[in-house]
Write a sequence for this structure.
């Protein structure tokens, strides 16, 4: 392995796989307009295909959204293995909870939280935050549950938040520190970044940023039942339980749950039509397929979450049954480095400054209505300033290339062009799936998201490091 790599490299044909299946996967993603940011395919423990759609890149951590939950599950496994926590331990016996709780709330256990079988029929996050803005654990326990615990699954973000707090209480370590010491450090994973709630605690159910290779390595660790480099990092029994079907998953009233969300749920892992997976909003996937000795890590800005999974099942999996050839390997090797998101088309001029104010009436604005925008020509592109007087935000925008700036701590990578009398730029919040399309013309300026971050539309919030907020999740 090269320095810094977590997994060894190979080529598809050497690992009994046809490179044409990876090419077919890339074609399907493009045909279905799935905006992919990265993909890594691991067969027999070796990376056989890896690609990043520029401006995304190998060394850049990417927000995993709810794929974070699967890492919290491993942290729970550490506490259980150390004898500090048991599956039947109750929340009310481990954490400081309100004195007046329902009998059902007092019976909630680690097992109920892990399987999201708390008696609720829908996600309780918004209601819990509303009830207790400064204490999500108390707010969650106060949300009434119509069904007995353990009887039905309902996807429920606060369950993982509570698990994280229980792990921290019994271990005496923060969730990030525990995972650094017991998982990331031994694996050689560096640069893990966490979004935080206002108290400074990690969300647990969301907010972990990792590189694509770190996600793939996590999948390989699970495939090897918790072993890494000859060491048993995670107890084999825990991996088997966590990644096995523990509860049936049910259709939702809105019909949005499709095939791969109806296969059952483990301990913060989803069962799939093939194997199991860690799963995050907008297409952040760690797919583990033991029957094929295959792992796929993917980051994306997908609106149809079933489409990437279908592409893997329909296009990639058949390649595990074909030998492939060096010629196919070469075609794939030539294509992967060319992956890129489209740059804004247009001209570099006129080379003059332009000013406008944000119109908040279109889409979901990334900046408040009335925010001034100033565009000044700069070497190879432009300097865009948002805000009155002393700039609130200064960003570099490239022409025909992406330029990076990090005015508030987290990077923005931007490119733009003039289209007649209209200036258009894409501002990628590159550590996340989201970007802002800025359009400035004679009528004013619009700054709208391609896909609104789950922590809210405020661009300034997304660029601060660490992102620290109450999770305003719809």
């Amino acid at each position: 392995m090269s320095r810094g790599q977590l997994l060894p490299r190979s080529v598809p044909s050497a690992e009994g796989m046809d490179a044409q299946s990876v090419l077919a996967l890339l074609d399907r993603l493009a045909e279905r307009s799935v905006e992919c940011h990265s993909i890594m395919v691991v067969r027999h423990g070796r990376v056989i295909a890896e690609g990043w759609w520029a401006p995304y890149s190998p060394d850049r951590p990417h927000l995993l959204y709810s794929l974070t939950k699967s890492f919290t599950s491993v942290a729970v496994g550490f506490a259980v293995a150390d004898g500090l926590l048991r599956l039947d331990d109750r929340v009310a016996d481990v954490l400081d909870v309100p004195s007046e709780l329902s009998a059902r709330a007092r019976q909630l256990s680690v097992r109920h939280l892990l399987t999201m079988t708390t008696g609720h029929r829908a996600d309780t996050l918004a209601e819990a935050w509303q009830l207790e803005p400064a204490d999500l654990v108390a707010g969650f326990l106060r949300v009434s549950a119509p069904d007995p615990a353990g009887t039905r699954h309902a996807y429920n973000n606060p369950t993982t938040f509570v698990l994280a707090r229980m792990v921290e209480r019994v271990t005496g370590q923060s969730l990030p520190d525990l995972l650094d010491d017991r998982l990331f450090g031994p694996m050689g994973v560096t640069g893990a970044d966490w979004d935080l709630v206002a108290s400074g605690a990690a969300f647990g159910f969301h907010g972990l940023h990792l590189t694509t290779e770190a996600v793939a390595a996590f999948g390989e660790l699970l495939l090897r039942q918790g072993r890494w480099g000859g060491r048993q990092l995670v107890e084999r029994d825990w991996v088997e339980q966590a990644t096995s079907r523990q509860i049936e998953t049910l259709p939702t009233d809105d019909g949005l749950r499709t095939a791969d969300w109806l296969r059952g749920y483990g301990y913060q892992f989803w069962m799939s039509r093939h194997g199991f997976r860690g799963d995050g909003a907008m297409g952040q996937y760690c797919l583990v397929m033991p029957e094929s000795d295959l792992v796929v890590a993917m980051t994306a800005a997908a609106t149809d979450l079933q489409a990437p999974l279908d592409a893997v099942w329909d296009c990639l999996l058949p390649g595990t049954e074909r030998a492939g050839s060096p010629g196919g390997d070469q075609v794939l090797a030539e294509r992967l480095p060319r992956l890129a998101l489209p740059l804004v088309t247009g001209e570099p001029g006129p080379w003059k400054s332009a000013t406008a104010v944000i119109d908040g009436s279109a889409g979901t604005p990334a900046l408040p209505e009335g925010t001034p925008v100033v565009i000044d020509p700069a070497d190879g592109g432009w300097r865009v300033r948002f805000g009155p007087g002393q700039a609130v935000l200064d960003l570099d925008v490239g022409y025909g290339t992406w330029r990076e700036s990090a005015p508030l701590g987290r990077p923005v990578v931007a490119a733009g062009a003039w289209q007649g009398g209209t200036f258009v730029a894409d501002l990628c919040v590159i550590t996340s799936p989201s970007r802002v399309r800025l359009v400035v013309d004679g009528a004013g300026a619009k700054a709208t998201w391609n896909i609104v971050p789950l922590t809210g539309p405020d661009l300034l919030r997304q660029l601060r490091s660490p992102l620290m907020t109450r999770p305003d999740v719809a």
Notes: The two ends are 43 Å apart (CA to CA).
